[in-house]
Amino acid sequence: MKKKSILSSLPSVDQLLNHEDIQKLIEEIPRTVVVNNTRSSLQSYRTEILNMKDDDLAKIYIDINKLIKNIVIESKKFMAMNLRQVINGTGVVLHTNLGRSLLSDEIKDQVWTVASSYSNLELDIATGKRGSRYSHVVDIIKHITGAEEALVVNNNAAAVMLVLSTMAKDREVVVSRGELVEIGGAFRVPDVMEQSGAKLVDVGTTNKTHLWDYEKAIGEDTSALLKVHTSNYKILGFTKEVALKDLVALGNKSGIPVIEDLGSGVLVDLQKYGLTYEPTVQESVASGVDIVTFSGDKLLGGPQAGIIVGKKKWIDEMKKNPLTRAFRIDKLTMVALEATLKLYLLDEEKMISSIPTLKMLTKSLDFLQDEAQKLYDILLTNNSNFQLEIKDDFSQVGGGSLPLAKLPTKVITVKPNSMSVSKLEEKLRTYTIPIITRIQDDQIVLDLRTLKEADYHIINEGLRDITTK
Ligand SMILES: *Cc1c(COP(=O)(O)O)cnc(C)c1O
């Protein structure tokens, strides 16, 4: 009875909409959005009252201002972009949750021009006839990798699926047991193989696979030998895997094509910058493998894409597979990929500094130290509520690439004087521009490797706002 009378004393949607603050809100936010949020705010207030115990009900008074404030906040939240910039202080360069590779500033004009204009996406300008959307990147991929032919799809998982569906449907594919990996995001090599219609024949053991394991498994029904570059984990100790060139030799001898899922797809040897060895696409192609697949947004540093290179005979078959249409890439991806690949034609120093993924991976310790000092000085003058220190630490490549590569780096550790570390982590993460950090040894860690100079003042303001609000 009491509840009923409280509920009936709530304002109606119309009354709320006529409130002066809501009228003002409607001037900047579409009416339909405000109406919806008014209804839902009112409804949740109703539910709250219905769930109240009698004791609490006795104390209740209807706070219209709270209701109005809630409508304003929720309406503004609804209008704000969900997908937006965050600051990556984690030091994980290819952070899948944070969007993996960043595109280069140098390509923004090309990308936006194609995005906002008509383009020759599928028009051959010379003849006026229908062209191929893939033609824009095929020559440059061939030029860089040395491959005979190339094709691009939405991501590397799609590339593997298309390759197997074309070359191995209803037939057997031989793969090492040690390479039946899960890549993350529930991408499991055996599952993809099954979906493609290929029959998996796993050989060897978890830690050791010999050439004769493959040899023994080859039979009437074998359509391909598959090598998966286990780029996200390493088995150490008593191990044996068959080198690609030995597999290629076996394939040649038996007349069976060899496919390699390379995962990361690095196009430059990064060893001289202190990174552990990672096979390049060029090396795989040169080994004579029939087909290689790799990602566009891992070590290549471009947009999400799956790149397939190798023998023309197989890629021509793939183009006829209906999956190619289903996995077709968008013009935004195409222009970003072409423009990123063009950066690979610059001389090495310039190329590395213009591709953010490569730039971050190759930052020197001296450079990181200088940047740490810069950020430290900015933070110190404004933030007496924290204990700040510059420390040595390690960054990670991420994205399932170079799992053992621990890149020495410089970090700033932040310890709040009057708040828990986990509270500070949460407040940074939910700041206007979210600042993503990691907690280590009961401190917030900000890794300079994945920060840009433009981030420094945002972090500074973030820390200041957190303690003053
Ligand atoms: C990352 C990875 C994939 C999946 O690539 P996406 O571009 O994320 O689809 C497949 N195979 C290997 C070996 C990988 O490392």
Structure description:
- The chain has helices at residues 2-8, 13-17, 20-28, 31-50, 54-59, 64-79, 108-116, 135-145, 156-168, 189-195, 211-217, 244-254, 281-286, 312-320, 322-326, 331-343, 348-354, 356-361, 365-382, 421-429, 453-468, and strands spanning 87-88, 92-94, 149-153, 172-176, 182-184, 187-188, 199-203, 222-228, 258-263, 291-295, 306-310, 386-398, 406-416, 435-436, 438-440, 443-447.
- It is α/β, with parallel strands linked by helices.
- The protein has 3 domains: 2-79, no CATH class; 87-96 and 361-468, Aspartate Aminotransferase, domain 1; 107-351, Aspartate Aminotransferase, domain 2 (3-Layer(aba) Sandwich), CATH 3.40.640.
- Helix 9 (156-168) crosses helix 14 and helix 19 (365-382) packs parallel to helix 21 (453-468).
- The two termini are 42 Å apart.
- The mean pLDDT is 93.
- Pyridoxal-5'-phosphate binds next to helix 9 and strand 9.
- The site of pyridoxal-5'-phosphate has 14 residues, from helix 9 and strand 9.
Q: Could you give the order of strands across the largest sheet?
A: 3-11-10-9-8-4-7
Please compute the radius of gyration using only Cα atoms.
Answer: 28 Å
Class computed from helices, strands and strand pairing: alpha/beta
Total domains:
3
Total of DSSP H or I helical runs spanning 4+ residues: 21
Task: Report the CATH superfamily of the largest domain.
Answer: Type I PLP-dependent aspartate aminotransferase-like (Major domain)
Number of strands: 16
Distance between the termini: 42 Å
Keywords: Cytoplasm, Protein biosynthesis, Pyridoxal phosphate, Selenium, Transferase
GO biological process, one term: selenocysteine incorporation
Family: Belongs to the SelA family.
Cofactor: pyridoxal 5'-phosphate
